[in-house]
Amino acid sequence: MVGVRSYLIRVMLSAATVLALLAMCIDSRSVSATAGVLFLVGFLLDGQRIHGYARGLLGIALVVTAGLVVQGRMSAGLLEKGLADAGFYSAFLASLGMMQCLVRRFEVLRRIHDVLLGGHHVWLYPKYAVVSGAVASVLSFGMMSLLCGSLSDTLKERGITGASRLRWVRSVLISALRGFALVPLVAPTSVAVAILTRELPQLSWSMLVPYGVAAALVLIGVGWALEQRRFRAVSSERVALRQWPKGSLSLVGLVLVVFAVMCVLVVLTGFKVSAAAMLAVPGITLLYMLWQERSLSAVVNEAADQVAGMTNEMSIFAASALLGVSLSSVIPDTALTGLAGSAAGTWLIAAAGLLIMPLLSAIGIIPITVLSIQAGMLPPLVAEGVDPLPVAVALVTGFSLAMMLSPFGPSVMLLSRFGQVSRWVVAFRWNGVFVVIVVPLLLLLLFLEALVLPASG
């Protein structure tokens, strides 16, 4: 019976992913909603393997949505939108997560810390942050699994323990976490960008990225200043590589092909960059796997296992999307319209959006849930005259900060598990001072973007 249920879950989640991608291609909300239902049923069937937090969030989302529907406070159209969003964001994570199938096929990914620790110690922090962000833009949460797991194995192999081990974990993995947090600011494959551009079609990644890059430079600069001393100590214990690991050029070429296909899809079809990534990443990955394995059944089984293995993260994404639509449906459209129409009002809305997300994440509400609710409130504000660009920039910046401060977020929990350090230590002791320093700088940057730049234009 267990084997039958496991097989059914794998088939259901894989079918839901394909259906959601098809819905995106034909622009059908009803098909996407059907995919959302399949995902939710699959998550419920797989409830025993889902972590407690994800299971609780899924239960709350279903109860709240059902309650609103029964009370007549949520229309059939909004329910369909909630289910469609649940299908889309689950498929977003599942499709990008397919890139993890390549990890075991490339030695350079297994020895990534030896690669990144090469060169002068003064460049180690920015190197880790930038490379982690670049890898995470393709691997998503797989990047944290890759860097955390490979570092844990490296430390065991070299017998690094005690204070030295803690220094490695804090320096290397906190840099990786902060690099991962750059993804919403600069990467077209970010779920934050996907959510905002889905709610506000007039926005695009190309409009957001210049401001995101500016915020990313602030984050990298502050982290660089704080982590130099510890990286100097870590660099004395590294192992120098005599040459690049086997397969390095192939991996770079494969990633470039993925981005080239994304560009072609955007140009020829008009898809958003995030939607193009959802098609290009699994497509190129599956073709490469088929070329390597020469067995369609083996590739299909591995792909299905990969999707099923992400049930915990996908259920969080689906529940957050459904809960976001449900809660935003009971918030009056006029709640913030008094601030619309002025630059100062726009900045206040943007600043509040930036601050609320890390604050709520710090008390256990994961960033994607908060962003889903906030994004649902944007269309009425934009209709009243609020400039969507500064607000969207503020939300992706707040999302970035929240990823570092959320003790229940997937990235912090992964670092905590592999590093054998309390997630409260990771979120608050290791990242607290960093966030306290960068928040005023980011608010100043937001002020310049929301007030000075529009005025000068």
UniProtKB/TrEMBL annotation:
Coiled coil: none annotated. Signal peptide: none annotated. The keyword Transmembrane helix applies. Keywords: Membrane, Transmembrane, Transmembrane helix. This is C4-dicarboxylate ABC transporter. The chain crosses the membrane at residues 57-74, 126-151, 172-196, 208-226, 247-267, 273-291, 347-371, 391-415, 427-448.
